[in-house]
């Protein structure tokens, strides 16, 4: 068999093992793993000596080309997947939003069009449900059969995205019936809105009040309610962007007796805190996203949660808005600041730095958090999320020793600031392959818009 490319001399790292091996790739898939593979017949040979060879990152929470708050997130499927690839992420699961009065099919078709000619790496979709009648309940089963096997619901943003408990319970019951997975934005939106109105009435309009009007208790209460509704429906539940210890405690209580509850934190909650709002003027708007940043002590609790498997996945909730003209829409009123932050590019390096380099967990656990578990939960495994014969050759050749300082001056996201400006990372993706083809080669983009494919996902199976 002819290998093209052939990756030699690297240390392969999966969720379970590190081992020295060559990888032979044929027709976009891994076709041989051995101590040494013959190079005579090979096409391109990539020398990975001194580097880690890992399955491509899977980011299950991104918002590319998304309308929100009177504007649209700054990265589309081209710039977003390019930035993701620079950071070692080779598959995204983005969100197709069903607006009120629409079918779920309309949402799916709209987002498929946004991605089709633009994505440089593979992608899939969850469907956000904001209006759940009998027809949409029926559609859930149809979408699952077509590879859209997870749905996101909101307990926040009343009047825009929020569903009532009865609708959430119906959706969970339907997901249980068809082996779908519900992803939950868990914050008590009703209570938060009352607190927000009070703050505005008191003239509190600066960006930091976005954070100060969304208490950790509101997240913990909704997390607990989501878990209870899922338990009653006999459904698993995935808690998106878990930000604080209060919610983590609710998850721990549920996971101890074995309930299938899967929470994801994001790098911003592991690296940033309320202290980031101590900046002049309107600059705090750079850190306005939901749930908000918390007091600094929560960070170490979340890192512990990752190490101890209370938290299973790290995603980014990438939802970039430029500071100029976009964030500035809320200059006089924090409720008008588009919610979201840019993070798609640095997830792997930030989690490697704080996790493996800082000796909180192993490189295997790192791979599990950023690739393998997301693949398993969301029906991409073993096609993606591991290094095995027959898996897609979505691979990251990673230099575990190189250091870089994150900056908007050098990043590839189409946004004019970085949430992580000035933070030093150790561990950098050098060459990134999508189905065997280089997308990033020695730190340069060599991919092609439109090369990414929609991935039909399998239904949920318990991890
Ligand atoms: Zn989100």
Calculate the terminal CA-CA distance, rounded to whole Å. Answer: 35 Å
Number of helices: 12
Query: Percent of residues in helical segments?
Result: 25-40%
- Topology pattern, helix = H, strand = E: EEEEEEEEHEHEHEHEHHHEHEHHHHEEEE
Explained architecture:
With 463 residues, the chain is of the alpha/beta class. The chain has helices spanning 77-86, 104-116, 134-145, 165-178, 189-201, 208-212, 216-233, 245-255, 267-271, 298-308, 347-357, 363-377, and strands spanning 6-13, 18-26, 29-34, 45-47, 52-55, 57-62, 67-68, 71-72, 89-97, 122-128, 150-154, 181-185, 237-239, 261-263, 395-405, 424-434, 437-441, 444-445. The strands form 3 sheets. Strands 1, 2, 3, 4, 5, 15, 16, 17 and 18 form a 9-stranded mixed beta sheet that branches. The protein has a 7-stranded parallel beta sheet with strand order 6-9-10-11-12-13-14. Helix 4 crosses helix 7. The two termini are 35 Å apart. 58% of the residues are buried. The mean pLDDT is 97. Zinc ion (ZN) is lined by residues 61, 63, 317, 319.
């Amino acid at each position: 068999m002819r290998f093209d490319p052939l990756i030699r001399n690297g240390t392969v790292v999966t969720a379970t093992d590190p081992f020295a091996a060559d990888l032979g790739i044929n027709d976009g898939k891994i076709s041989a793993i051995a101590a040494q593979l013959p190079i005579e017949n090979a096409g391109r040979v990539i020398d990975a000596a001194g580097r880690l060879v890992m399955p491509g990152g899977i980011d299950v929470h991104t918002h590319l080309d998304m309308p929100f708050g009177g504007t649209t997130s700054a990265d589309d499927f081209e710039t977003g997947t390019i930035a993701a690839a620079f950071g070692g992420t080779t598959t995204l699961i983005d969100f197709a939003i069903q607006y009120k009065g629409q079918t779920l099919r309309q949402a799916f078709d709209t987002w498929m069009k946004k991605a089709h000619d633009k994505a440089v790496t593979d992608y899939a979709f969850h469907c956000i449900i904001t209006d759940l009648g009998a027809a949409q309940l029926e559609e859930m089963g149809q979408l699952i059969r077509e590879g859209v096997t997870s749905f996101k619901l909101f307990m926040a943003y009343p009047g825009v995205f929020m569903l009532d408990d009865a609708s959430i319970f119906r959706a969970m019951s339907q997901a249980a019936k068809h082996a779908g997975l519900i992803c939950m934005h868990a914050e008590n939106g009703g209570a938060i809105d009352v607190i927000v109105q009070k703050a505005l009435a008191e003239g509190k309009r600066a960006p930091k009040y976005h954070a100060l009007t969304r208490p950790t208790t509101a997240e913990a209460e909704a997390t607990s309610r989501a878990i209870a509704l899922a338990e009653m429906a006999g459904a698993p539940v995935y808690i998106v962007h878990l930000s604080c210890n209060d919610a983590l405690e609710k998850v721990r209580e549920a996971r101890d007796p074995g309930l299938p509850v899967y929470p994801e934190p994001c790098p911003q909650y592991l690296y940033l805190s309320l202290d980031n709002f101590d900046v002049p003027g309107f600059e705090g708007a750079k850190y306005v996203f939901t749930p908000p940043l918390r007091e600094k002590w929560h960070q170490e609790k979340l890192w512990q949660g990752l190490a101890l498997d209370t938290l299973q996945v790290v995603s980014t909730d990438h939802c970039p808005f430029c500071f100029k003209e976009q964030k500035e829409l809320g200059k006089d009123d924090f409720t008008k600041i588009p919610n979201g932050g840019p993070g798609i590019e640095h997830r792997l390096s930030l989690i490697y730095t704080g996790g493996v380099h800082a000796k909180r967990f192993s490189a295997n656990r790192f791979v599990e958090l950023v690739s393998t578990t997301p693949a398993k939960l969301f029906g991409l495994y073993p096609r993606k999320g591991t290094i095995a014969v027959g898996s897609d050759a979505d691979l990251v050749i990673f230099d575990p020793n190189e250091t870089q300082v994150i900056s908007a001056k050098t990043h590839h996201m189409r946004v004019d600031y970085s949430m992580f400006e000035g933070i030093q990372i150790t561990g950098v993706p050098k060459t990134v392959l999508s189905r065997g083809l280089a997308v990033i080669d020695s730190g340069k983009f060599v991919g092609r818009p439109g090369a990414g494919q929609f991935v039909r996902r399998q239904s949920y199976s318990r991890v």
